[in-house]
Amino acid sequence: MAKPIPRIGSRRNGRIGLRKSARRIPSGVLHVQASFNNTLVTVTDIRGQVVYWSSAGTCGFKGARKGTPFAAQTAAENAIRTMVDQGMQRAEVMIKGPGLGRDAALRAIRRSGILLSFVRDVTPIPHNGCRPPKKRRV
Hints:
Keywords: Chloroplast, Plastid, Ribonucleoprotein, Ribosomal protein, RNA-binding, rRNA-binding
Number of helices: 2
Family: Belongs to the universal ribosomal protein uS11 family.
Organism: Phacellaria compressa
CATH topology of one domain: Nucleotidyltransferase, domain 5
Strand order of the largest sheet: 3-2-1-4-5
Mean pLDDT: 88
CATH class of one domain: Alpha Beta
Helix content: 10-25%
Order of helices and strands: EEEHEHE
Low-confidence stretches: none
Number of strands: 5
Protein name: Small ribosomal subunit protein uS11c
Shape: extended
Largest sheet: 5 strands, mixed
């Protein structure tokens, strides 16, 4: 029986080549999703392709501390520092969610020196939403 020819692009062979070289991105979109348990900061280019992301969990916070404003500030600073190194100067900010990290993340973004074209709240709001559970009969 012949030996199978290994596929060139398979994951078992390890990484093929290195990561893409750092792209120069002059402007992008910062998406901040602040839930009660964590805060995610995602940086995309204008077309919406994810370039970098950070969260309170990846910054080393565990458990209940992930939902704190300080953790959100750290996650935002981490994402912005990387993007400023890649040449980002202008950004739009989309904030989603009810968490405590909303204001702290925005404050960190403002302090970073990136010019913000606008800040938009994109929290989903139900227009009457789901049907409530039926009344309790005792």
